[in-house]
Design a protein that fits this description.
It is built from three helices and 14 strands. The protein is mainly β and 255 residues long. The structure holds 2-acetamido-2-deoxy-beta-D-glucopyranose (2 copies). Its EC number is 3.4.21.35.
């Protein structure tokens, strides 16, 4: 079964010059309305190369997907238009990655269990209107909950087109039963599916690692989904943050 968790992988394997997994059926976010949104880049000058999204969870830590790990990455905060200098942007070179110990990078079996990772910034972020952390969700959200995803990932698929401004989309949490039906045998306890069952809206390449915000807290981290983004009956797969609260706390306290 060609279940790609991969919007994410596509680009890694194909050497896609942009990268990893965003949002189909989205619209431009109001600038800096998602002040916890971070972008992870391989190269930060033009042509910049977006790898993943991430979420600022304190002035020193980001939460993203474990499959976004590289020897080092550039983090941009306070960003909206990727090609314009608008004022609130902050840039960090990061090397301190803390992937969840349960994550095994296995591109053959495409096991994306525990696809969650903390990143420590080399210095504190300067908080302001365009740069604010988001609390992690301690209680798990129920199916049907309306949530918001955001990212600079592809806005079309399979022919990918990348936006220059941050895109936002409302999607809902799906029943675990539907999630299992879409990806039989591949959905573990720490995962959830979100999107529209009929397709047409959801995360895509370049969105990986980015936020799923429900009730004003971080409920999910974009992990994967079907290879063609937003196909009917192949919703996006997210790491369910409520299952990792203890690990997140412990890691942030220890390091
Ligand atoms: C975030 O969590 C802190 C500590 O639990 C709490 O005091 C604060 O009100 C929360 N912020 C929001 C926006 O929910
Ligand atoms: C998401 O839904 C909220 C509330 O219904 C609405 O105010 C907002 O404009 C929607 N955002 C997008 C990007 O569709």
């Amino acid at each position: 079964m060609q279940l790609g968790f991969v919007c994410a992988l596509l680009s890694l394997l194909a050497g896609n010059s942009w990268a990893d997994t965003r949002a189909i059926g989205a619209q431009e976010c109001h600038p800096n309305s998602q002040p916890w949104q971070a972008g992870l880049f391989y190269v930060t000058r033009n042509p910049y190369r977006l790898l993943c999204g991430a979420t600022l969870v304190s002035d020193r830590w980001l939460l993203t997907a474990a499959h976004c790990q590289r020897p080092f990455l550039w983090v941009r905060l306070g960003e909206h238009h990727l090609q314009k200098r608008e004022g609130p942007e902050q840039l960090f070179r990061v090397m301190d990655f803390f992937p969840h110990p349960g994550f095994k990078q296995n591109r053959i079996t495409q096991d994306y269990k525990d696809d969650i990772m903390l990143i420590r910034l080399p210095r504190k972020a300067r908080l302001g209107p365009a740069v604010q952390p988001l609390n992690v969700s301690e209680t798990c959200v129920s199916p049907g909950t309306q949530c918001l995803i955001s990212g600079w990932g592809a806005v079309s698929s399979p022919t990918v087109h990348f936006p220059v401004t941050l895109q936002c989309a409302n999607i809902s949490i799906l029943e675990p039963r539907l999630c299992q039906r879409a990806y039989p045998g591949q959905i573990s306890k720490g995962m959830l599916c979100a999107g529209l069952w009929e397709g047409g809206r959801g995360s895509c390449q370049g969105d990986s690692g980015g936020p799923l915000v429900c009730h004003g807290t971080l409920a999910g981290v974009v992990s994967g989904g079907s290879e063609l983004c937003s196909r009917p009956h192949h919703p996006g797969v997210y790491s369910s943050v409520c299952h990792y609260v203890r690990w997140i706390r412990k890691t942030m306290e220890e390091y």
